[in-house]
Design a protein that fits this description.
Strand content: 35-45%
Distance between the termini: 16 Å
Structural class: mainly beta
Largest sheet: 3 strands, antiparallel
Low-confidence stretches: 1-40
Number of domains: 2
Strand order of the largest sheet: 1-4-11
Length: 145
């Protein structure tokens, strides 16, 4: 089942979730992507490791929370003790504009970030990021048009 998500343009003093505060006077939100229910969701992680042999700590980014080898002593197969989910991120573009980026399920050796939305205002960018994270948790997979 495919669900198209399109949010186009809000003008002059739009409010968010009944809090009565304007998001911004004029902003444009552009989303042209599809979400489909699937078994694989978008993913990109920064994994944190500690070597049990030499106490070296390191980070590595990958499309899953996978085991890694110590770069210092060569000991093998350490699972991450913590992973940061970087599947959806916000990047400041300047002039108060933000891009909400996502890593597609096809990402393997790099996040291959794609634009989900470009907005004016950090609050709106954070709201879009939260929606994308929640949809992903429900099993949706983002695909570019």
């Amino acid at each position: 089942m495919a669900i198209a998500l399109y949010l186009i343009i809000f003008q002059a003093n739009s409010t968010c979730f009944g809090q009565g505060q304007p998001l911004n006077k004029n902003f444009t939100l552009i989303i042209s992507t599809n979400a489909t229910r699937g078994s694989t969701a978008m993913s990109w992680f920064r994994n944190h490791y500690i070597c049990e042999q030499c106490d070296e700590s390191w980070n590595d980014e990958w499309s899953c929370a996978c085991d890694d080898d110590c770069q210092s002593c060569g000991a093998r197969h350490f699972s991450p003790y913590h992973s940061d989910d970087l599947s959806v991120i916000i990047e400041e573009m300047g002039d108060g504009r933000y891009a909400v980026l996502y890593s597609p399920s096809s990402a393997e050796h790099n996040p291959d970030y794609r634009t989900l939305a470009e907005v004016t205002g950090n609050r709106l960018a954070k709201m879009i990021e939260e929606i994308a994270i929640n949809l992903t948790a429900d099993g949706f997979q983002w695909k570019s048009n």
